Amino acid sequence: MNEEYHIPVLLTESVDGMNISPESICVDVTFGGGGHSREVLSRLGEKGHLYSFDQDEDAVNNMPEDKRFTFVRSNFRYLKNFLKYYGQDSVDAILADLGVSSHHFDDSERGFSFRFEESNLDMRMNRQSKKNAAFVLNEFSEEKLADVFYLYGELRESRQIAAAIVRKRSQVPIAKISDLLDALAPFIRREKEKKILAQAFQALRIEVNEEMETLREMLVQSLEILKPGGRLSVITYHSLEDRLVKNFFKTGNFEGKVDKDFFGNVNTPFRLVNNKVIVPNAEEQARNPRSRSAKLRIAEKN
């Protein structure tokens, strides 16, 4: 397992939640460093199989050599299509760890972290995509930028930030992380500097990679391809993702609208395996500080 690439978060809890048997057909939609996938493989017998998805070319280097393993280099929004291609109409368990790999944050060339001021503003998980962070900052309208920072970064001064970026780019294109930091400088209070920068960078990353749309698509497809009694185990890292997953698990829709039958029973496609969200214990948080925001939810298809 490539721990330098990414330390798997809530490893035992998330894979336990999949309720794997030796013959299970499983999917890991976020392969990354391969930590969760290797744990899944360790629980499968000869007749079991694991399909792991990742759109990042770097993830290929972490693949295990195992005849029970198939790597799919694709965004998980195409989950159903690729499983159909491999002859799988239904599966027993699906795992999603929605966190960005430590590898991405620590690779200065990828532009995910505000620590690397001279790096280009990239943030693409799939480097074949044309839309990177610089494109968003230079081409989006002021109103659209404000929406990105408000909806995905939950930044209260999103309109003022968008206006500052538009002013900055009218003088010189915003290409490097230092250019963005200059535009954000008036809105950063020293005591909240890291938090505000993290929110701004999160907003851009979500927009560049269309993370909320792809998550919705993956969840809907997961419901379609899971067998009755099949499990979906999802680790989220911010409130936007967690709200989507929570609502979908509880009600079968993303708005959280409760549909009841004649007798007042809630119509839902899932049974919640854990009513209370699972978070890393103190030991794991100390060992891997990036796990602190992780939340695990597990649901079983009715």
For the biggest sheet, the summary is:
7 strands, mixed
Overall radius of gyration: 20 Å
Q: What is the molecular shape?
A: globular
Q: What string gives the helices and strands in order?
A: HEHEEHEHHHHHHHEHEHE
Name the CATH class of the largest domain. Answer: Alpha Beta
Any idea of the CATH topology of the largest domain?
Rossmann fold
Structural class: alpha/beta
Report how far apart the termini are: 34 Å
Specify the number of helices.
12
**Strand order within the widest beta sheet:** 3-2-1-4-5-7-6
- In total, how many beta strands? 7
Total tally of structural domains: 2
User: Residue-averaged pLDDT, rounded?
Assistant: 93
Beta-strand residue percentage = 5-15%
Q: Judging by the overall fold, what is the CATH architecture of the largest domain?
A: 3-Layer(aba) Sandwich
Low-confidence stretches: none
Keywords:
DNA polymerase, domain 1, Rossmann fold, alpha/beta, 2 domains
Short précis:
With 302 residues, the protein is an alpha/beta fold.
Chart the SSEs and their pairings.
Blueprint: H1 11-16, E1 25-28, H2 35-42, E2 49-53, E3 69-72, H3 79-85, E4 91-97, H4 102-106, H5 133-139, H6 142-151, H7 158-171, H8 177-184, H9 193-209, H10 211-225, E5 226-236, H11 239-251, E6 270-272, H12 282-287, E7 295-301
Parallel strand pairs: 1-2, 1-4, 2-3, 4-5
Antiparallel strand pairs: 5-7, 6-7
Helix pairs in contact: 6-7, 6-9, 7-8, 10-11
